[in-house]
Amino acid sequence: MGGSGTTAALAAAEEGLQVLAIDKAGRYGGTSSITSEALFVNPPRFQAEHNNGEDYTDADVMYDAWVAYGEGDAKEDIVHRMIYESGEVLDWLVYDHGVGFAEPMTGFTESDVYVTKYQWLPNDIMYNKAEIGAYFDGMWSDFEELGGTYLLETEGYELIYDEATNTVTGAKARNLADGTEYTINADAVIIATGGYAGSPELEEQLLRNDYYPIKGVWKHLGSTQNDGKMLQAAMDIGAGTYNISMPPEVHNSGTETWLTTQFDAHYIEGQLGKVTGRPSFWTEGDLPANLGWSADSLAVDANGERFTSETGVSFLDPWIAGPNYYSIWSQEQLDKIAAEGFDTDRSGPSAEFLSSGTPIPMNTPVPNVEEVMAAAEEAGIVVKADTIEELAEKLGMDPATLTATVETYNGYCETGVDEQFGKPAEFLDPIGEGPYYCVVMASYCYGSCGGLNINSDMQVLAEDGETVINGLYAVGTDSMGVLFTEKKPYVTYGGANNGWGLVSGYLCGKGLGETLGQE
């Protein structure tokens, strides 16, 4: 009953179908209700009101770019539906169901020129989740008025499957509060359960190191109820997957655990947290994470090698190293922070969504650095050693490799030219005299990206990639892999996951109404 489940249920109910929706959580809205934006392309009614009826973006150019990004792996017919039919979904949400979206913007990088990122209203603040929740209140109220029924705290765990006819005829579910068992008979079952990032077991099972070192368990910033149980149920009856090992969707990084409450809070007068809306504060306990976010740091992967410009480790690039990356610092650098503070800006999604919600202000001395780093070492998020070689050994890295990485990086700092990743000279700060420290950082994912294999009608396909499993559909994150490739990360257009959820759910629900309504 997140974004995809909501639009699927509501669209199907509008088509006159009898619909039962269930959700494992005690609330509806899912991950969609805690996002910032969604991707849509050229909504006609919205454009008529806000843009003189003119298109915001060239849909043909965007379609070609999306398909090219998929390197032949993205299913072009489904990308086509996403690009060319998403606009009507935004119009339906806004004008038929009172959902608020701002005028669109471009995406997160300079290459994201497509004006397709629609932020929820109000979009002048990030603590707008109550307002977003109210939109879902309205949609589920509309659903009930159409005769729909829903159950919360009710987990689907098994599909009812007739092997002889290759048909799903319902599902089994359980109320997590009182243990009530349900056998739900249905003409169609739509899986809209948000992917598998809430399941460490499925992450270990499904993620592979074919293109990037992504196998393992990832820290999760999304909805933990998205544990892939119904994905597994579908695979158990022979459903195929598509790009199931695509890198998770990552926009944040941080330490594995936090020391926020172990040190005093320092409130910033007159400033509110961008995410919380409460008075902003920072604490020395967030020092390790601030080190790991710093553009002037040296970040390496599990092999002791750099993997990106450190300007990207706090936002779009930490995943490249896998579930963890390692931020290397010298005593000389920490002594400077103790006396003078940070001279780089660490604000952004990671600092705003994690820890205290505010980075340590620039040029603010942190005199108790030694105390904080000792506490971090005790907590297991910092490793300290007298030499780089010893540090490598403690981290399980090859000492020669890490030593060479540090020497090469220091050479770039001396010349002012990062020959490997092009990091600007202003962020090239050499690793000085020891002892040496490593902050163990983690990528925080919103969710998985790969999912079940579907056709353009959202019907789940068998392992052969062609046979339709009758009566079974998958939308949202549970089928998003069809839009992408395992060779590359999630796109940076802005809101693609949420947009796909809202759009695929609507298209599936409406399509089912048209199909089942004729039977």
From TrEMBL:
The keyword S-adenosyl-L-methionine belongs to this UniProt entry's keyword annotation: no
Q: Which residues form a coiled coil?
A: none
Sorted UniProt keywords: FAD, Flavoprotein, Oxidoreductase
- Answer yes or no on keyword Methyltransferase: no
Identify a single GO molecular function assigned to this protein. Answer: steroid dehydrogenase activity, acting on the CH-CH group of donors
Q: Which cofactors, by name?
A: FAD
Q: Where is the FAD-dependent oxidoreductase 2 FAD-binding domain?
A: 2-481
Record PANTHER family: FAD-DEPENDENT OXIDOREDUCTASE 2 FAD BINDING DOMAIN-CONTAINING PROTEIN, FUMARATE REDUCTASE
What is the protein named? FAD-binding protein
